[in-house]
């Protein structure tokens, strides 16, 4: 069965070697925005002949062909997902590294309004939110406001914005 990323490669006229097919399959089946090392580990379980260099070259080729999107979530390593069909933003759990995709119409509207107020028409954006699960948030929050809340014995009240929706993988 042909993977989604392999189909995109074929549509764009890329030559598909057996190793590229394996890498395309691994990326298509990933819902966790893997880095190259993770792609290599998964691909080499399927085909032990695949080298890390092949994975780097293939990921770069797919990225240059706009088949993959590269993300830098501040961890010192690039992570990848299939080029999304629809725009979405990311919430990154800073403790586990888990990436949650979401779309929020209110945030999208506010960004367009900010651009317009500054005399621009928004043509694109990338939004990455970083956080910890709410039950761990007070431990991680070291802002003056959080310190004051801790001293007063209060918990932070954090709620997702209205309309926030979680989406699945790429």
Q: Features of this protein?
A:
alpha+beta, Dna Ligase, domain 1, 2 domains, 4-stranded mixed β-sheet
Summarize the structure.
The protein is of the alpha+beta class and 170 residues long. It has helices at 4-11, 18-29, 36-46, 52-64, 105-117, 134-140, 144-152, and strands spanning 68-72, 78-82, 89-93, 99-103, 128-131, 165-167.
Molecular structure report:
The chain has 170 residues and is an alpha+beta fold. It folds into two domains: 1-85, Winged helix-like DNA-binding domain superfamily/Winged helix DNA-binding domain (Arc Repressor Mutant, subunit A, Orthogonal Bundle), CATH 1.10.10; 86-134, Dna Ligase, domain 1 (2-Layer Sandwich). 43% of the residues lie in helices and 16% in strands. It contains seven helices and six strands, in the order ααααββββαβααβ. It has helices at residues 4-11, 18-29, 36-46, 52-64, 105-117, 134-140, 144-152, and strands at residues 68-72, 78-82, 89-93, 99-103, 128-131, 165-167. A four-stranded mixed β-sheet has the order 5-3-4-6. It has a two-stranded antiparallel ribbon with strand order 1-2. Strand 3 (89-93) and strand 4 (99-103) form a beta hairpin. The chain is globular.
